[in-house]
Amino acid sequence: MSLQTLETPFSPPSETTVHGRRQRRADDSLLLTELSPYAVVDHLDGDQAPVNLTSFGVVRETCPKCLQSQLHLVLRQRNVRAAHLFCAACHSCFDAHYASGAPALTI
Q1: Is pLDDT larger for residue 48 or for residue 93?
Q2: Where along the chain do its domains lie?
Q3: What's this model's pTM, rounded to 2 decimal places?
Q4: What is the DSSP string of 25-59?
């Protein structure tokens, strides 16, 4: 399997947005659960077939598996069944939820 992540353009927040952010609280921490890539991405049939994913930015969480890189947010798209966090270094996929049990990747 070969997963490629493409990142969408990012515009920095305006000055008023930066000052308007709320402070991070302990209950804002995300709990990550590893998902099988086959459960969230379609067409992972052959190990040599590349799959292009569009990333919608990097989140503050670091990959709990390889501990080397920040995770990318991948939303539902043409060949992605469910929104998830993706590690470009080790190709792992994660679901995220809050300590209260509420999902973090759904609207």
Answers
A1: 93
A2: 2-6+29-98
A3: 0.69
A4: -GGGPEEEEEE-HHHHBS---STT-EEEEEEEEEE
